[in-house]
């Protein structure tokens, strides 16, 4: 007997819960079926985690239904303008969050916030977002995290965040926090063209009552499918961050292992480390190939070492490349942010490559083409 419900069962439950029947455009059913099958075959979750995991799938289906119902009642959303976006991507743990948080302080950008993604309807308004129950709950959930987890990742509720929920609504998200390596094998090679067009559909809804219309995205996983992203956002420009993969891979493995739901027994951390090492390398190989097709003029490369040692110089580099003026008030807000989030301000993230069956030398060997292509500085 199957441990998890079928895709058809989840679809039926979502329709019953929402009272709607239109799931909208784009191919999401295949991704849902592959995800459920991988969870069944590959998963190692403690059964107590099942209701929350399946509940997330059901919530995303309900979100799809509510998005289409909103469009039906508000057809003017079809005409909402989406400018840009500026997209920050690259390997994770390379400064994408720090750079995105600083850029998010500029009022010129419309940020894709985590709290509005989790439940897009109704779209937020500037007047009420500070007390929006979705935002309040989002902040409270973060505060309930352990001190160890808070030390691993900077948190700004109104900064742009990974589009995990939007891609999750299409069931074409990376799903890095679930033990589904079979699904990720499928996802890496999947065509996300329809997915990113659906992504734009939800972004238009989110921006329909909350300006501005120049969007700022941040998602390391975008590197896997850059050409599909361009198909939905033809004016997009990319800021790609870089760092020594010997630091990136174990740091990311540590983060993933801390936020994946508990295992039924002891999780194989060496297996997880190997998968992450291979997964991120393949993603960067995809990105390098896509850059050649998209055009290098669309990309600005930013190195972690400079971001750490000269954050304002890095921001000015990005602004100059975009052709924007950095106003004194925004620069001041960014310097204040840097002071509040200096290294160690929220605790220390401790990890080693060996915890995950890896070594610095082996990782750098695997990523040699990446290191040479971008002249990545190696850290001690």
UniProtKB/TrEMBL annotation:
Gene3D superfamilies: P-loop containing nucleotide triphosphate hydrolases. Pfam families: Sulfotransfer_3. InterPro entries: P-loop_NTPase (IPR027417), Stf3_sulfotransferase (IPR052736). This is Sulfotransferase.
